[in-house]
Amino acid sequence: MTRSALAPAWLPYPESVSDAHHIDPVMWADGVERGGDGVVTVHGVSVAKLAEDYGTPLLVLDEDDFHARARAFRTAFNAAFDQLCGGVDVYYASKSLLTVDVARWAREEGLRVDTASGGELALALRGGVDPADIGLHGNNKSDAEIHRALEVGVGRIVVDSLDELNRVAELAGETGQQAPVMLRLTPGVHAHTHDYIATAHEDQKFGLSMATGRNGEDPPALEAVRFAAESASIEFLGLHCHIGSQIFEAAGFGAAAEKLLTFIAEIRNDAGIVVKELDLGGGHGIAYTPADTPRHPEEIAQTLAALMRAVVDRLGIDCPRVSIEPGRAISGPAGFTLYTVGVTKTVQVDDDHSRRYVAVDGGMSDNPRPVLYDADYTAMLASRVSEASATLSRVVGKHCESGDIVVRDGYLPDDVGRGDLLAVPATGAYTHVMSSNYNMLPRPAIVAVSHSGPRLIIRRESEADLFAREVGLANVPASTPTTTDNGGS
């Protein structure tokens, strides 16, 4: 068997069995290994044992790896920025993955926590995070969310519109409080990523524009700064930006920082307003496939610090206290999803080419990123060794959608079949938090594995969970039969 002409250019063909069994440390958590028997283990615990004890689909988190990645960001950025601005405040972007345990892990590593809704705020609090170490994002916060943030005393409320700024000031004033506010600006830096995860260009919903109006009106960003600095019910902390996600180079962060630092110098010189904090957001990329080339936090931090030092020296200003918000870069590589194979079939694509389809017991309900963003992943036979030749395969889910694709293109052994376990790396971020009950599939469990062994941190949903909100269920006779298939093994 040779490389398929249908395979994308980035997908390497495994020339040997050892290549097909290779655990790429860039895509997999540090505690993941594969033995000579072909079985994948996490800190010595086999995926077969995990599947037996917890079922599939299953999100497996390397707890130690999460801790190490969180620590790496805090250590690297504090070292790089120590002399420039006294260090960096690292906020874990909890929208990538949040459970009570995950919030606790971030707190234990000295990270603060960034939340994007009242629900995430409640979960961070339940995880024991000090409210002063929590930030609240969201482009359309409800009055209830703003009240809750003020009531518990969050460290920052990130505001990204004049409308919301006025509302926060009004609600804080009614209770005699000062709302701690960061203003989110759009620096006009278009990250080289998917349009739906690029967030700093003008034509999208986030942020206060820094562009002058068509008739010469002051930019909304300047208007917001003036209001925040003068309002008795606003504690103006500083500025915030976020240029997008899956960004591999520091240059984009540096360009955004330069634009905001220039703005900071201008408002200091023109209005005497001193900005003490600057949040550069997150979006640090990870490897989903061999084509991805993420940078180590130390490399990003040192490059960014050097860029910013040159800018503040040129502008003649003190560097504000910097904060960042890594999420995916911490949680993503720490997790992988374990599936059980069901149906397999080969289809003829054209006269010369065929493709093998491998269906698993999950899909777009546990990972919607492929259908939302055309996201690429890879998969590995995780439960045994195979000497079979590698065949271009498409791993698909069990949902009633042709777009229900888990791995669009990957090479798997030709003899992969029913009952085999497949592992998909780099799924710790934006799977659990974006999961759904489409086709009434229960959402998967999450097991955390460390050097101390495995433990369940999110249980698998049951039929009772699926029916829990059905008010009409009270009118269904008790004798009505129900199924017991949870869509897993």
Describe the structure.
This protein is an alpha/beta fold. The protein has 13 helices and 21 strands. It has helices at residues 17-20, 47-54, 63-85, 100-108, 118-126, 143-152, 162-174, 220-230, 251-271, 297-315, 328-331, 369-373, 463-467, and strands at residues 32-34, 40-42, 45-46, 58-62, 88-93, 112-115, 134-136, 156-159, 179-186, 208-209, 234-240, 277-279, 321-324, 335-348, 354-360, 380-381, 390-396, 405-413, 421-425, 445-450, 453-458. The strands form three sheets. Strands 4, 14, 15, 16, 17, 18, 19, 20 and 21 form a nine-stranded mixed β-sheet that branches. An eight-stranded parallel β-barrel has the order 5-6-7-8-9-11-12-13, surrounded by six helices. The protein has a three-stranded antiparallel β-sheet with strand order 1-2-3. Strand 5 (88-93), helix 4 (100-108) and strand 6 (112-115) form a beta-alpha-beta unit. Helix 3 packs parallel to helix 10 (297-315), helix 6 packs across helix 7 (162-174) and helix 9 (251-271) packs parallel to helix 10. The longest helix has 23 residues, at 63-85. The two termini are 32 Å apart. The relative contact order is 0.17.
